[in-house]
Amino acid sequence: MPAEDFLRYGTAALEWLNSYYAHVESLPVVASVQPGDIRNLLPPTGPEIGEAFEKIMADMDRVILPGTTHWQSPNFYAYFPSNISGPSILAELLSAGMSVQGMLWKTGPACTEVETHVLDWLVYAMDLPKSFLSTESGGGVIQDTASSAVLCAVIAAREKATDGDSNSNGLMTPLVAYASSETHSSVEKAIRIAGIGSKNFRVVDVDKNFAMRPDHLQKMISDDRVAGRQPFFVCATVGTTSSNAVDPVRPIGEVCRRENVWFHVDAAMSGTVALCPEHRYLFDGLEYADSYNFNPHKWMMTNFDCSVLYVQRKSDLIESLSINPEYLHTKEYATGLAADYRDWQVPLGRRFRALKLWFVLRYYGTEGLKYHIRYHIALTRLIQHKVQEDPDFEVVVPAVLNMFCFRLRKGRSKTEALLAAINETGRAYMTHTIIGEDYVIRWCVGQAQTRMRHVLETWDIVQRLKQHIA
């Protein structure tokens, strides 16, 4: 593509995106297509002769938009936040254009050092344990998702528990991992991939607030030791996906320290809230964590993918994941002065993900990010109060931060029907979960463009539909 065309078409693409954001709230939040509909709009084989860029861009409207569930709609309340911002989008464009492959310091010095430095910024901004700083024993690295982060943590824990033997000879010791029933499914997947096996994955009981019970964790660990098994990994969560429950980090960490078990804290969904001092009590005891993960791509105005993993001891991660073929040797790495982030992750290659985080932090500053977080929490409390005032509804799980779970008092079938009706309007999108024996609707507020009028309009929709369901 000639330079003048690149500039012209690049401008057209940005104009399309700007127009998209201007009217995204008018689009049906959930794509109203059936499996196969989008493929049926595409030719059976790719073109042999290149097509005009104008024709390609036209298919953004003809093919892509009708098949898109709009995560950036202000009326998207499903799953978890996935908010983004202009600075993040532009940084991602620059990153794609430069196409840095930052596997080694040598192949991307700026890519490596900006990442190291920005993650140190966040340690200070969020008042995280100072051992997570790159200048101390630990450090941070950007993974693609929390699933990859927890897999790296499980592998490091496995190697620490077996003194590195499982990487050499395979897993010979029956290791056991622990998490609550509310823990994200990625933890069990990591346990499978790492060769531990689901049979060695223990589900710890939760209390009335759906938080892990440290006393039950202690009992399960003790029972496994008596049975000749080796406990090696515990995962606590600050902000579970299902109910946004918060595990008691300190007492769980104390059990892990006492039992010499790796302690991982997953705050993928809610970790960004640590920017706000009034919510840092949720992270009390984080100094016990051997590893800690949160996702800027959920609630820090930074687009997917950008998942931060911190470790107390960088050597645990590097020694578990490092492979050193001759063709990757560099004199900078040999000096110990440069980080090669290939040794901190499963893949060899890596993108310049830190660029967008750097842009976002510089553009908004921590005060700007705090504003958005506090606003989302305030909107959540506002709408939760309205639900609580309605005698037809029950709030099953009150909001700790930016999500609550509710149901119709008339039971599961009515609640299921209400959720289906809400989503069929195209004006809002919510999802469900099971809490105890209750089928509940999750209302999660966190998109960048969501304002008070959006949540109030959605509440009006819920009220109107409720009359027909009831």
Describe what you observe in this structure.
This protein has 470 residues and is an alpha/beta fold. It has a domain at 101-351: Type I PLP-dependent aspartate aminotransferase-like (Major domain) (Aspartate Aminotransferase, domain 2), CATH 3.40.640.10. It contains 16 helices and eleven strands. It has helices spanning 3-23, 37-40, 53-64, 86-98, 109-125, 146-161, 165-169, 185-193, 214-226, 249-259, 296-299, 314-321, 331-335, 354-389, 412-424, 452-469, and strands at 139-143, 175-180, 201-204, 230-237, 262-266, 291-294, 307-311, 393-397, 403-408, 431-435, 438-444. It has a seven-stranded mixed sheet with strand order 1-7-6-5-4-2-3, with helices on both faces. Strands 8-9-11-10 form a four-stranded antiparallel sheet. Helix 4 runs antiparallel to helix 14 (354-389), helix 9 runs parallel beside helix 10 (249-259) and helix 15 (412-424) packs across helix 16. The model has no long low-confidence stretch (mean pLDDT 94).
Concise description?
This protein is of the alpha/beta class and 470 residues long. The chain has helices at 3-23, 37-40, 53-64, 86-98, 109-125, 146-161, 165-169, 185-193, 214-226, 249-259, 296-299, 314-321, 331-335, 354-389, 412-424, 452-469; strands at residues 139-143, 175-180, 201-204, 230-237, 262-266, 291-294, 307-311, 393-397, 403-408, 431-435, 438-444.
